[in-house]
């Protein structure tokens, strides 16, 4: 995605209006559909990425009020998604915070994955098979298979870790990364696991130090005149398509590009102004650009290698709450309450 070679692009290809703030978006692996979740009204919308309109097969938003839809992730099945629910306060604690395998074809929950005792913070589906990882505020990481109700494995954070962990597969499904804060403001753990031999523990146990983070902040965005904490909690984690870089978002709105093998900080980029809502960011599918949604409704397009803003996109009427890149087509999506599909 070379945003510098064609000044008039990217451009809005379509806008699908909505009435509730969008909390997450996930593209189908063939790039044909986009699933859009709104937590406040518990709805899931399905957008046809080729026409820019609601999918004819699911023209009316689906609702899941009982489970209290939190966020959504696509699976390898074209008509099934995984979504994290918060459950009802009237339910027993062990039945809340379930992950649900939902058939959008007939609007049925086919399987529930229970075990987490607090809010699920992330779901990552393996590109290689039907396994998926979940992380939760209960300080655990769990590995599941969509064909089995119980978890295959569980990782409990050690006492030296703090905050909410994150877990994500790389683009091959052979490696996954787990991150968590280090108690006492001593930085961030990033542990890498072989997905086929996860029981042996991490093959690389890496640390992002506050000193390294502060040096990168000072070097890359120090001139902005805004102070950012080098120990701010990480709120998201993503591998790029090549698997050689990680993108972490922080609670203060920073996006951190890390070496995918050594976890050294390669680049730090910031929104148009400091955000307390957490970073809204993702890699583009060619690994050249970091897209960052801003509180003022704009989208900053940062060059991964230089950190320079190569394009600023405008059009949304409210803060950007989600961004996602189409894995197959020259398209990405951004959302506030409405969803925009951008092409170039």
Automatic annotation (TrEMBL):
WD repeats: 113-154, 313-344
UniProt keyword Repeat, yes or no: yes
Molecular function GO terms recorded: chromatin binding
Signal peptide: none
Domain of life where this protein originates: Eukaryota
Location(s), subcellular: Nucleus
One GO BP: RNA metabolic process
Listed PROSITE patterns: WD_REPEATS_2 (PS50082), WD_REPEATS_REGION (PS50294)
Alphabetized UniProt keyword annotations: Nucleus, Repeat, WD repeat
Gene Ontology CC terms: Set1C/COMPASS complex
InterPro entries: Swd2/WDR82, WD40/YVTN_repeat-like_dom_sf, WD40_repeat_dom_sf, WD40_rpt
PANTHER family in UniProt: WD REPEAT-CONTAINING PROTEIN 82, WD40 REPEAT PROTEIN SWD2
Similarity remark: Belongs to the WD repeat SWD2 family.
Descriptive protein name: WD repeat-containing protein 82
Organism: Seminavis robusta
């Amino acid at each position: 995605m070379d945003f510098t070679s064609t000044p008039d692009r990217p451009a809005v290809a379509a806008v699908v209006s909505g009435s509730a703030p969008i909390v997450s978006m996930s593209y189908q692996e063939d790039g044909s559909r986009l699933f859009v979740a709104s937590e406040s009204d518990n709805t899931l919308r399905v957008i046809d990425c080729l026409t820019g309109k609601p999918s004819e097969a699911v023209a009316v938003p689906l609702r899941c009020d009982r489970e209290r839809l939190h966020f959504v992730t696509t699976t390898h099945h074209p008509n099934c998604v995984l979504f994290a629910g918060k459950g009802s306060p009237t339910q027993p604690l062990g039945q809340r915070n379930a992950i649900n395998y939902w058939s959008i074809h007939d609007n049925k929950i086919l399987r529930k994955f229970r075990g987490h005792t607090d809010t699920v913070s992330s779901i990552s589906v393996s590109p290689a098979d039907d396994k998926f990882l979940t992380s939760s505020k209960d300080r655990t990481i769990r590995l599941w298979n969509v064909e089995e109700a119980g978890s295959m494995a569980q990782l409990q954070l050690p006492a030296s870790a703090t905050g909410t962990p994150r877990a994500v597969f790389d683009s091959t499904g052979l490696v996954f990364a787990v991150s968590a804060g280090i108690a006492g403001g001593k930085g961030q753990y990033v542990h890498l696991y072989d997905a086929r031999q996860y029981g042996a523990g991490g093959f690389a146990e890496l640390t992002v130090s506050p000193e390294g983070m502060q040096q990168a902040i000072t070097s890359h965005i120090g001139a902005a005149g805004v102070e950012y904490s080098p120990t701010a909690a990480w709120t998201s984690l993503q591998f790029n398509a090549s698997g050689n870089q990680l993108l972490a978002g922080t609670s203060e709105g920073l996006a951190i590009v890390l070496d995918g093998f050594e976890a050294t900080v390669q680049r730090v980029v910031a929104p148009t102004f400091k955000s307390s809502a957490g970073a809204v960011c993702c890699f583009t599918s060619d690994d050249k650009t970091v897209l960052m949604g801003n509180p003022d409704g704009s989208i900053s397009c940062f060059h991964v290698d230089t950190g320079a803003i190569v394009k600023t996109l405008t059009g949304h009427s409210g803060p950007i709450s989600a961004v996602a890149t189409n894995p197959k087509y020259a398209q990405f999506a951004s959302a506030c309450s409405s969803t925009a599909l951008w092409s170039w």
